[in-house]
Request: fold
Amino acid sequence: MKRLLLIVTVAVVAVTGVFASGKTDSFAGTKLVLSSLDTSILRKNDNLLPLLKEKTGIELTMDYIPESAYMTKLQVVLAAGSGEYDIMYANNKMYPVLFPTGWILPVDDYLKDPKMTTKEWDYGDFVPAIAANVKYEGKTMGIPFHSESNLLYYNKKLLADNGFKEPPKTVLEVYEYAKKLHHPEKGYAGVALIGTREGNVNGYGWIMVWLALGGSWRPAGKTPYAVLANPEAIQAAEIWTDMLKNYGPPGISNYGWNELYLAMQQEKVAMVISPTNDYPTYTDPSKSKIGEVMGYQCLKGPGDKYTVGNIAAWLIAKGSKNPKAAWAAITFLTSREAQIKQVVEKNSVNPTRNSVLSSKEFQKYDPNWAAATKEAFAHGNLEYTPLIPQGGQIREYLAIALSKALSGQMAPKDAMEEANANVVKLLANK
Amino acid sequence: MPDADDETELEPVMRGTALRRSKRTSGANFYRRDRLSFLLLMGPPFLIIFVLTVVPFFYSLYLSTWKMNFAMPANTRFVGLRNFVYMVTEDPYFWTIIRNTAVQVFGTVSLQVVVGVLLALLFSRAVRGMNIARGLIMLPMMTTPVVVGVIWRFMVNPDFGIINYLLSVVGIHGPDWLGRPGLAMATIIAADVWLSTPFVTVILVAGISSLPVEPFEAATVDGASSWQTFVHVTMPLLSPVIWVAVMFRLIDALKRFDSIVIMTAGGPGNATETLNLFAYSNAFTMMDAGYGSSLAVLLFLLIGLVSIFTIRRVQRSGNA
Reply:
């Protein structure tokens, strides 16, 4: 009798436990850590954290890391399998390094599970080309939350003061305009781009120029990726170097994102080529003098893919101790509700859902910026950066070459040829 | 029978015997009694240091014999000393990096020693207000190198930095300090001198205060001038202490990373990239763990050689 009572008690407890553990929609008290690049736009994701906690119970800690150290930190953490990060930011430049390693958890199972992903969340609402960018060998490796292209931002007043009625439409026109807009005696320079080698970000600005001149990492009939000595690459380097050296602001060789923003906000430069999502930064009335006179132009180039197409996504680390909670957090952060909130509060200007891009809230942004952005996205080149595991190293050789050219250590052509020789050796695995 | 005189004569012998016996007994007792305490106190710190320094070093030495690139894991293979051969014979940047390192280290240390000696001589005088001056001069030493890098990066900014502003007040158009290769290295050196000279000064002030007064009195009596006293008395007496300071500063300068990364990230081009940064860049940006480790091993060997050389100089100076 006692034995029977014991068996029944154990069975009741076990069954209760099963039903209790089946309650997967509540992550109350779950703590997760998310690693992200440290930029002013990405920090705006903090605004979603209180709502995330309210909706899911998840407490998400954001670990912001400067771009120059981000990949290093991420690789060390992921390789160690420490589980320090549950969710990570990654973009095109990082996918070829991260996806083949096995450090990232594919999310197809979660997408197919109705308990983990509701129908209302609707994966099909993401812009197809953007969503496809975060796939690897047919597996969905993450969910895109941010898309980015590049625009010419210009000060309409300074252009008008110098007799220009229209903005430049191509990179070559930007170069010509910069010569006439450069007035250091009046306190402003003609044009600015990122100049610092740190985190190889100077290459990003060069790529914007190079794409607009018809550059490609996989040109037809030529060796892929070993393209730094090709004519359009050298031309881009020469234009980039001359523009910044002779028509850029003082100290351009150390210009990072903050210096670029400051220069434009404080009317120290007439034009910058910068990502589409920098629009709120340049027009922030608390920091910018020129919000009212800001103009936007998508620079045209040959072919169809002449602007940057940078897609950022949230990924789940395989070492995460709470992958289901991480998925719940990602579905919230990329939900229509969250993206609309960010758009309304001007915390995000590059949503990835069709319904948000065509929403009345999104249309309230400056129509000129919105039109230029739409055009830039339409010609976005998702392969703006070398999408191979050696991509980071190729960008590093490029960054050193551009830095040498800008500082006068080498002529742009020689610097690019040296970089290309290193790329050839790298690809041959010497 | 020993008498009183015999006892007096025997006393030192007996005392010595008793003392030796006491030493043997108490020495053995000491080690028996306190061996456990010794192990408990010294063991954990030694173990921690061993695990955190010796083990990673040997692992790094092991990695340096492999071709191991995280971007191309399929090509991982044992290559022996190939990384070191590549370093000196094929790497297009290596000798530039070595030259940069030599310029940065010797430029920094020599200026720190010269300025440090001058400051130490100044602070050794009993002048009113010297305590306050000593306190102020120590402030840079309490600042972390990262913060120093940030401060200097803002100070030398050609657009809104204070240095170019002050130059403009006197009609001089300030240069792009971190944008020109030679100037960038000079600025890095200046920042390090600002940061680390107080350390040299502290060591030398302590050294000066412990110098015997008799040689100086003798020099005065012999009619030596201040300069002659400085050259022929002060500097020779101070040289062991100077070499100690040089040793610490050389090792630190070879390891300098943080302020350089903040100020220039090794640029413009690779004009300020030193061996430490180069090893880091190869290991973590190029993801070439094998080659990065070989560069780190080279840095370790350089630091080891510098340490041996300066320790010998200290010993030689002390014996002279």
Confidence is low (pLDDT under 50) at residues 1-7 of chain B.
